[in-house]
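Continuing the series of single-chain predictions for the mutant panel. This is the parent chain; the variants come on the following pages.
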Amino acid sequence: MQPIEALLLEPVGCLAEFPSAPFHEIAVRLFGPKGKSNSSASRSYWRLLNLIDSVKTPLDVEKKSLAETLEVEAVDVASIYEDVIPALVELKFMGIQILVASSLSRKAVSRFIERNSLGEFLSGVYTRDDAGGVKSAPLVDALDGASLAREKTMFLTDTLEGIKTARSVGVHPILMMNDPDEAQLLAMHNPAGGVVSLHEMPDFIRLIAAQFERGRSENAST
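Parent structure:
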């Protein structure tokens, strides 16, 4: 893996503990009852994104407003992980570009960033409203908008859908191992790496850079 220059972040499941209920309610009210509520906010969220993506048409004004309202409610009770700010401080000091690339609405993402005072750490913010779609669309928008090299970019995720989405756009999926049992199953899908907390990300990026330089030195000596 080449040295990492940028990290794409999805707030749900990777930056904060979100409630599951609002995402399930959006799914029910927009698409009808399709499956049971899940205790995992991330799984409920990505299930909702799959439903939105399957329709292939933009949400109308009423549905967009409903989704925004419930997403903002979720943001307002979400608890940011205690390691986020220290990790972002260190990553910014290292020169890593930090971008939010989220399938949440622009209104919800803006509220999340403002509520948790994250703006000073971010090089860019991309949402489903900016990208005109969910899942891979915000990632592609971020990559193109910030002129990022895909082979030098990571996407942090805690779901299989997130791993697949990262791979679909050519960036490295990094597993956020929130739940040990689930992480063990997700590791079978060969993410590019994994961290137990965001606090580990700076050292992980340093390790990749060191391995790359070691490989270059060995190749140069042969």
